[in-house]
Amino acid sequence: MAFVEHSGTEIASAGGARVEDYIALLKPRVMSLVVFxxxxxxxxxxxxxxxxxxxxxxxxxxxxxxxxxxxxMWYDASIDAIMSRTRNRPxxxxxxxxxxxxxxxLICSGFSVAILGLATNWVAAGLLAFTIFFYAVIxxxxxxxxxxxxxxxxxxxxxxxxxxGWAAVTGDIGLPSIVLFAIIFLWTPPHFWALALxxxxxxxxxxxxxxxxxxxxxxxxxxxxxxxxxxVAASFAPLAIHMSGxxxxxxxxVTGASFLYLAVRLYLSxxxxxxxxxxxxxxxxxxxxxxxxxxxxxxxxxxxxxGWVVA
Amino acid sequence: MSNPIVPxxxxxxxxxxxxxxxxxxxxxxxxxxxxxxxTIVKMGPAVFTQRDL
Lengths: 311, 53
Known about the structure:
By secondary structure, chain A is mainly α.
């Protein structure tokens, strides 16, 4: 067991993180979205997978995501301590040490990849390993501090789970799984830039080059609008490739229109207080948008399979 | 990294270690069950078919 870190005057005492701190290190809230999108990818994939293997696959994807979250907290502890949103995480608040986070991250990552490979196939396991590497190394250690496009490229890490779920069943990467990837990938910039707009001071204090504090609010609002338009257009791709039918199309239309409405309102906001309010509304809405879009894909798929819905 | 100091009494520390040990034991137990179930499922229904040796 690791030791509680000390300032030099106090004697370090053994003990360290509690069970709930280890759980917090796995970023359970991020994990829940990863699990949800991975389940959809797995269920939409053609062919079948033994339900037990399906559950094990989802468990592996969840633990792998948790492992990469712990590695992120291990590396980012110093900047997490500066930002109000992350100040209460286990390491900056002193409830866990960096060593504990690193050990947890490595163990979860290693086990999840190995077990997914043994349970399903090595394409899915390779994708999971690449996702963990992409998030922990490419995004956390490099992009996050290097470029205001950090979350655009880094967003790929969060976009892989449905593709891993798909690969667990089929053993390959099909066009529909690339469409699922693209939807999350294009959703990430407006989602995080909306957050960055109303938490701008935080990122600036931590020295992270987020778009609002590098290129300014006006440019960020414009880019949010551009990405929102591309996202909503891409959300109709499942219809174009005959992956989904009109039930999904109708839901994508309504939710996409609301997304665009908020993005346009944000773009037109000039006064700071009002702008931050709209940015917060877009951030919150974007979370439910992704959830509803993926749920609609699933509903449409199940409806067609049961013959309730005509494609 | 300058973490705040977490003062711990011996009793606190022991209680915390005990909870962690139980959690670790449960995780290891779950892994054993997981590998067992995984093996049976991968072997398929044939595992229940008796064959003459």
